[in-house]
Write a structure and sequence with these properties.
CATH superfamily: Photosystem II Psb28
CATH architecture: Beta Barrel
Strand order of the largest sheet: 4-3-7-8
Membrane topology: Peripheral membrane protein
Strand content: 35-45%
Main location: plastid
Helix content: 10-25%
Distance between the termini: 32 Å
CATH topology: Elongation Factor Tu (Ef-tu), domain 3
Subcellular location: Plastid, Chloroplast thylakoid membrane
Keywords: Chloroplast, Membrane, Photosynthesis, Photosystem II, Plastid, Thylakoid
CATH class: Mainly Beta
Largest sheet: 4 strands, antiparallel
Shape: globular
Number of strands: 10
Family: Belongs to the Psb28 family.
Radius of gyration: 16 Å
Number of domains: 1
Structural class: alpha+beta
């Protein structure tokens, strides 16, 4: 998603946006996830699994509605999936897991660009196991 802003009499300019993750469109998730990545040996596909412990979406979902998907938003646009599940402990929501599947090398590259931006904005680092 690219935002454009036009001041009276001035040409349009791009406004930088902070990368965000959302479960409800328009509401940024405040909890920083743990992320696990797998990639096929030939590099043609991969999977990213995001795990959120006590995500803030549970605090706001009563007013804003249900989780509608998993949205990763940055200056290039939006990556999304509907593969989202919630874990409950003693009847209360405790964790959300989202799975994002990358089917091509291009999908993988785009995802990694998002993660680089998101990581820089949120103080995450990549650790290879």
């Amino acid at each position: 998603m690219v935002l454009w802003e036009r001041a009276a009499g001035w040409p349009a300019r791009v406004v930088a946006m902070k990368p965000a993750i959302q479960f409800i469109q328009g509401t940024d998730e405040q909890t920083i996830p743990d992320v696990r990545l797998t990639k096929s040996r030939d590099g043609t596909n991969g999977v990213a699994i995001f795990e959120f412990d006590q995500p803030s979406v549970f605090d706001s979902s009563a007013e804003l509605g249900d989780i509608t998907g998993f949205y990763m938003i940055d200056e290039e646009g939006m990556l999304q999936t509907v593969d989202v599940s919630a874990k409950f402990v003693n009847g209360k929501p405790a964790r959300v897991e989202a799975k994002y599947v990358m089917r091509t090398a291009g999908d993988w590259d785009r995802f990694m660009r998002f993660m680089e931006r998101y990581s820089q904005a949120n103080g995450l680092q990549f650790v290879k196991n």
